[in-house]
Amino acid sequence: MMAETRERATATEGSRPVSLPPDPDAYDSPRAAQARARGLAAPYIAGGEDPDLAATRRQERRYVRLLIVMIVVVVLAGFVLGIAANLLGLAGLLGGVD
């Protein structure tokens, strides 16, 4: 993309940064065209294109499974603690009769 083909202007002339001329290849890039279609001033669209989509999908599937397991553990822990409190005679914790 633009960063690969052109060097960024990091040198400064006095206190003003050196600006580069427009890059016609970057103007025609898919990201820039999508940004212009959405009325954005710059070719930045959050997210972009993932360089390794398959690996990201695998990682996201693992996180979804982990999230489901955590939800099940939290719900079951409530039942287990309620049953344990009832067996130990702590009915006050359960909102029962004192």
Q: Could you describe the 3D structure shown?
A:
With 98 residues, this protein is mainly alpha-helical. The protein folds into two domains: 12-49, no CATH class; 53-94, no CATH class. The longest helix has 35 residues, at 53-87. The model is unreliable at 1-13 (pLDDT under 50). A hairpin with a 2-residue loop joins strand 1 (12-13) and strand 2 (16-17). The protein has helices at residues 2-5, 24-27, 30-37, 53-87, and strands at 12-13, 16-17. Strands 1-2 form a two-stranded antiparallel ribbon.
Topology:
Layout: H1 2-5, E1 12-13, E2 16-17, H2 24-27, H3 30-37, H4 53-87
Computed CA radius of gyration, to the nearest angstrom:
28 Å
Q: Indicate the overall shape.
A: elongated
Query: Portion of residues in helices?
Result: 40-55%
Residue-averaged pLDDT: 77
Main β-sheet, spatial strand arrangement:
1-2
Q: Report the sheet with the most strands, covering strand number, pairing sense and barrel closure.
A: 2 strands, antiparallel
Unreliable segments (pLDDT under 50, ≥5 consecutive)? 1-13
Report the order of strands and helices: HEEHHH
Number of DSSP E strands: 2
Strand content: under 5%
Helix count? 4
Class by alpha and beta content: mainly alpha
The span between the termini is 71 Å
* Number of spatially distinct domains: 2
